[in-house]
Design goal:
This protein has about 325 residues and is of the alpha/beta class. It folds into 2 domains: about 180 residues, 3-Layer(aba) Sandwich (Rossmann fold); about 90 residues, 3-Layer(aba) Sandwich (Rossmann fold), CATH 3.40.50. The chain contains 9 helices and 16 strands. The strands form 4 sheets. The protein has an 8-stranded mixed beta sheet with strand order 4-1-5-6-7-8-11-12, sandwiched between helices.
């Protein structure tokens, strides 16, 4: 089993500096020490992106750089690990799941809450767990290993900035949990895939939280100039203050310009059902698109992916209601 590691940056390889943590650890030597004396010794290669990126600085361009690095090692590796900062790891893992939906080799994201040189760090447990996952015949697609738990890469969300169990999958079971032996719970859904995707490019997508007292004037200001797509994080199953003067008019103006309006929920666990309550029926009448049970990370990355493929109009709505890589549970039609 040959495994290639792409080191993109993040806390795992950072060291102290006068301005705070920055990349600088000798990750290659540390990784060699982790592998010394085990069955993967001599079977793991490493590439380091330049420059390394704090994940809070990640853009869709960085997603594509990671994708390109993985593809460049496809003939020399049987599985892949991406070492990534935790802040946007779930965005990146979801993004890779779409762009590499037809990729036949497993890709496992991981990182750590503490740098590798700190006493008590979770770096070793996460990396060795990711190595174990990458080498398992039960793993396919893009996954995320963190805090002794393996999650589907496009179903994960960051839940804590400090806990070692820093990620969870709110709408599906984990793929596995570590143990002797590992416990396996949920397979990775395949989705429809995407043949020969175009590279990721940056797009203007607005993400707006609905909050009590949000005025139409403020909403209009936040959406001026008009973005390419809008994600509304509504209440519950997709509710907004539709009776508040002007709110629906602002959103109707976007739809008149054929700008996609996708409705997600602010709830940790939820399935968006537009029109289930009167407060959400206005969105349904506008032709807004339900995010169903997608995490924000999966939804945002999917929006950028579709825009990067030049998908617009009715096709955009159709693909939001289809699974590319298992990122969504769609309602069963009776």
């Amino acid at each position: 089993m040959r495994i290639h590691v792409t080191y993109a940056g993040g806390t795992i390889g950072m060291v102290d500096s006068p301005d705070g943590l920055r990349p600088g650890a000798d990750l290659a030597s540390w990784l060699d020490a982790q592998l010394d004396g085990i069955e993967l010794s001599g079977q793991v290669s490493l590439s380091q992106l330049s420059p390394l990126v704090d994940s809070s600085e990640t853009t869709p361009i960085h997603w594509q750089i990671i994708i390109d690095d993985v593809r460049s090692h496809v003939d020399s590796a049987d599985a892949f690990i991406v070492l990534h900062g935790t802040d946007t790891m779930a965005y990146s893992s979801a993004a890779l799941s779409y762009a590499l939906a037809d990729f036949e080799k497993p890709i496992v994201f991981t990182g750590s809450q503490y740098p590798l040189g700190v006493v008590g760090t979770d770096a070793s447990a996460n990396v060795t767990g990711a190595l174990r996952a990458a080498g398992s015949p039960q793993v396919r697609g893009v996954t995320l290993f963190f805090g002794h738990t393996l999650l589907a890469g496009n179903r994960a969300t960051k839940t804590s900035s400090w806990a070692f169990a820093g990620f969870d999958s709110p709408s599906t079971l984990p793929v596995a949990r570590t143990g002797a032996p590992w416990q396996w719970y949920h397979g990775i859904e395949a989705g429809e895939g995407w043949a020969k995707p175009a590279p990721y490019t940056r797009h203007d997508v607005a993400v707006i939280d609905i909050v009590p007292g949000l005025s139409a004037e403020r909403l209009r200001a936040m959406l001026t100039p008009a973005p390419e797509a809008v994600i509304i994080r509504a209440y519950g199953v997709g509710n907004i203050p539709a009776s508040d003067p002007g709110i629906v008019d602002v959103l109707a103006g976007l739809r008149a310009q054929d700008i996609p309006l996708i409705v997600a929920s602010q709830c940790y666990q939820s399935e968006v059902v537009l029109g289930h309550y009167e407060a959400g029926s206005a969105l349904a009448r506008l032709g807004a698109i339900s995010a169903h049970d997608m995490t924000l990370e999966a939804l945002y990355s999917k929006t950028i992916f579709l825009l990067s493929q030049e998908i617009r109009g009715d096709q955009f709505a159709q693909w939001m209601n289809r699974s590319i890589a298992g990122e969504v549970n769609l309602p069963t039609i009776a």
